[in-house]
Design a protein that fits this description.
Layout lengths: L7 H18 L1 H7 L1 H4 L8 H21 L7 H25 L10 H14 L2 H7 L2
Helix pairs in contact: 1-4, 5-6
């Protein structure tokens, strides 16, 4: 499951990918622990939408586990994670700020969480990690 090459930085990066996948699998727990920051209530809680989002993130987690074997070869997954996280956060921020003001707690929960994920993977992209340690 982890990178088996000689590059120690990529071995660590591979481990980060596995840890991130595990965090994605904990998403339903976040809905329960911090519902105001992670569960949308307007117009009402929609369990079907919530479960669909969780299913998408489970799919991403499975892909992260598979990609951890070779982070550089699978860097497109990191690119997708960066782009989709920013877009997801922007849509949620728009709705929290301008459409569903009762959802403002998301500006302290999943919105910054998604921006942090995108920023982390942008700064620590596997191609950059591989070049820096070569």
């Amino acid at each position: 499951m982890l990178y088996q090459g000689d590059n120690e930085a990529l071995k660590r990066y591979s481990l980060v990918m596995v840890v991130f996948a595990a965090a994605l699998f904990s998403l339903p727990l976040m809905f329960e622990i911090l519902p105001d920051q992670f569960r949308w209530h307007e117009p009402e809680v929609n369990m079907a939408d919530e479960r669909m989002i969780v299913a998408m993130y489970y799919g991403l987690a499975i892909c992260f586990l598979m990609a951890a074997k070779d982070p550089v070869k699978n860097a497109i997954l990191i690119d997708f994670t960066i782009i989709s996280s920013v877009l997801h956060a922007l849509v949620m921020a728009y709705y929290a700020l301008f459409v569903l003001e009762t959802e403002m707690p998301h500006m302290w929960g999943d919105v910054p969480f998604l921006f942090v994920i995108a920023l982390f993977f942008l700064i620590y992209h596997p191609r950059k990690v591989a070049r820096a340690s070569a």
